[in-house]
Amino acid sequence: MAFNCSYIPESTQTDAGVAGSGTLLSFIITNFVSFLLSGAIILLGLRKSTSAPISRKLLQSFSDQQILTGIGIQSVGLAKMHTMVPYHFFIIWLLSLLSTATNLATLLALVNDFKRDWVLRWIRQIFMLVNMFLGILSGVFILQTVLKNLEPRLPIACVWEVESRGKSSNAAMSIAGTIAVIAGQVIVFTLSTWYLHARTYPKWMKSVQVMCLVLLLAMGVGATIRVVMESQAFGSPPASINLQGPSEGNWSFGQLLPLLLLALPIISTVEIMRGETRTPPSKVDDDSVPLFPNGNDMEFQYQPNPLVGSQNSLFRK
């Protein structure tokens, strides 16, 4: 795709799809809930009081949702690099860090669950690999943007086309932080791969597990604070980008949808608790065995609401 890096637009169009309030809150809330569940599961594991099956299922659902949305939003950012400015690209990178922190916290808490099934284990491994690759690629763009002090209203793809404008006042800190995050992603991926596939662990691994959870929590809190400060939805973006268009803090169905999707793992967990997802016995043939053995197609087993009383009469002919 052809793009012009010699023309600097006077303003930047807002993009609520990647920096809207609903999108940001969905990542932040999922990260927060996942850390609460991970911490509870790890602490219960230290005390060996319960296996917390419901919390495990809920955590895995939130983690799967978070890592998929993290991979998706990074793919969108790289696909739109010829039109997306560094401001929006940086927010996507921060959201990917939240996704990584959620995924790793889940791995710490549910590693034995993944080990019991080689399919789940390798699906998680593939997700980790794709997420690391996209995170490093995005980090390289961010690093190059800082090194060249790219004009904030140019598309981020121009970072490979334009000359350097000199270093900004906080360039040294930004470069060091970006390099540290990129290197950390590689190191963490390597250690996580070993942790996921190792058959045995040393006795001190429980202490390391708690320490890693605290470090990941610090990573998630740092990324959350930076997102809130930088975004137009909750903070104050740099004035130099001159955002124009509908505010990214405005609410619409597109912003409400990511938050509504957070209810799906909770609904699935409630159904599991209530036994709604149980399958019939394998010997039952739905085509030969009648669903209503009494011959009355209006009469079936009904569990009454304990708060209201029996309502069986409403479901009888």
Give the helix proportion (percent range).
Answer: 55-70%
> What is the helix tally?
9
| Total beta strand runs | 2
Total domain count? 1
Description of the molecule:
By secondary structure, this protein is mainly alpha-helical. The chain has one domain. It has nine helices and two strands, in the order βαααααααβαα. The protein has helices spanning 16-19, 21-47, 53-79, 86-115, 118-148, 171-197, 205-230, 253-261, 263-274; strands spanning 12-13, 243-244. A two-stranded parallel sheet has the order 1-2. The radius of gyration is 25 Å and the shape is globular. The N and C termini lie far apart (67 Å). The relative contact order is 0.15. InterPro entries: Elsinochrome_Biosynth-Asso. Residues 295-317 are annotated as: Disordered. The chain crosses the membrane at residues 24-46, 91-114, 126-147, 171-196, 208-229.
Short description:
This protein is mainly alpha-helical.
Question: Which features would summarize this protein structure in a list?
Answer:
Elsinochrome_Biosynth-Asso; transmembrane helix; two-stranded parallel ribbon; 61% helix; membrane; disordered C terminus; 317 residues; mainly alpha
Topology:
Elements: E1 12-13, H1 16-19, H2 21-47, H3 53-79, H4 86-115, H5 118-148, H6 171-197, H7 205-230, E2 243-244, H8 253-261, H9 263-274
Parallel strand pairs: 1-2
